[in-house]
Amino acid sequence: KAGVTQTPRYLIKTRGQQVTLSCSPISGHRSVSWYQQTPGQGLQFLFEYFSETQRNKGNFPGRFSGRQFSNSRSEMNVSTLELGDSALYLCASSSGDRTGWNNEQFFGPGTRLTVL
Amino acid sequence: SQQGEEDPQALSIQEGENATMNCSYKTSINNLQWYRQNSGRGLVHLILIRSNEREKHSGRLRVTLDTSKKSSSLLITASRAADTASYFCATGRGGANSKLTFGKGITLSVRP
């Protein structure tokens, strides 16, 4: 099985611009979660999409948004970029089982975003 | 806010030695997962242990979970230079909430 893929791997943007990142989960997985990793704050949960619906959301401003398509691929968008948005953005794929037990979440290689 | 806190923050050992890393958390959990990250790349899933399990093994890895103490440990036996990486524990609440809450990580250096 192919792993989680993320594109692009690197991005450089300037303040005020917007950016769209893409994530393709493992085949058969219906849940995609997004995380932001910075040296100061560590790994923080942004949101999760399951069957094209946002199921969970972290504590990030509305500039951060996402969506999921019928093939489970997901995109996240950051509008009006700020310097503090520079980070490694990771997406994670899981089966999204709702029975009560979490399943393993498998991460992609990440997109390194630099905001100048 | 961080749920898990790993201990120690940094660990340096000789190749062939065992490495033990600890993680503590604050609230009740459904499961705990350990990940490895090399040089700011993606996270590699190592092992998941559920709240009703006490110990799991995977190759050279052994994970324990003590829910009464809200703590977990990851043991890497016979370490190799290739084990040099950052290690994170992440806790999950279960149900329809798939959010993982990560600790700050442990930097492991294995000297050849």
Major sheet description of chain B: 6 strands, mixed
Tell me the number of strands of chain A.
11
Order of helices and strands of chain B: EEEEEEEEEEE
N-to-C CA distance of chain A: 37 Å
The termini of chain B sit apart by 36 Å
Query: What's the rounded overall pLDDT mean of chain B?
Result: 91
The unreliable regions of chain B are none
Main beta-sheet strand count, sense and barrel state of chain A:
7 strands, mixed
Rg of chain B computed from alpha carbons, rounded to a whole number of angstroms: 13 Å
Task: Supply the number of helical segments of chain A.
Answer: 0
Task: Give a short synopsis of this structure.
Chain A has 116 residues and is mainly β.
Would you give an account of this structure?
The complex is a heterodimer of chains A (116) and B (112). Chain A is mainly β and 116 residues long. Helix content of chain A is 0%, strand content 52%. Chain A has no helices and 11 strands. Chain A has strands at residues 5-7, 10-13, 19-24, 31-38, 42-50, 53-57, 64-68, 74-78, 87-94, 106-107, 111-115. Chain A is globular and about 40 Å long. Chain A starts with a strand and ends with a strand. The model of chain A has no long low-confidence stretch (mean pLDDT 93). By secondary structure, chain B is an all-beta fold. In chain B, 0% of the residues lie in helices and 60% in strands. Classes of the chains: A mainly beta (116), B mainly beta (112). Chain A binds chain B through residues 4, 6, 31, 33, 35, 42-45, 48, 50, 55-56, 58, 88, 90, 92, 94, 96, 98, 100-110, 112, and chain B through 2, 30-31, 33, 35, 40-45, 48, 50, 88, 90, 92-105.
List the defining traits of the structure above:
heterodimer; A: 116 residues; mainly beta; seven-stranded mixed β-sheet; four-stranded antiparallel β-sheet; 11 strands; 0% helix; globular; B: 112 residues; six-stranded mixed β-sheet
Topology:
The complex is a heterodimer of chains A (about 120) and B (about 110).
Chain A: E1 5-7, E2 10-13, E3 19-24, E4 31-38, E5 42-50, E6 53-57, E7 64-68, E8 74-78, E9 87-94, E10 106-107, E11 111-115
Chain B: E1 5-7, E2 10-14, E3 19-24, E4 31-37, E5 43-50, E6 55-58, E7 61-66, E8 71-76, E9 85-94, E10 97-102, E11 106-111
Parallel strand pairs in B: 2-11
Antiparallel strand pairs in B: 1-3, 3-8, 4-5, 4-9, 6-7, 7-8, 9-10, 9-11
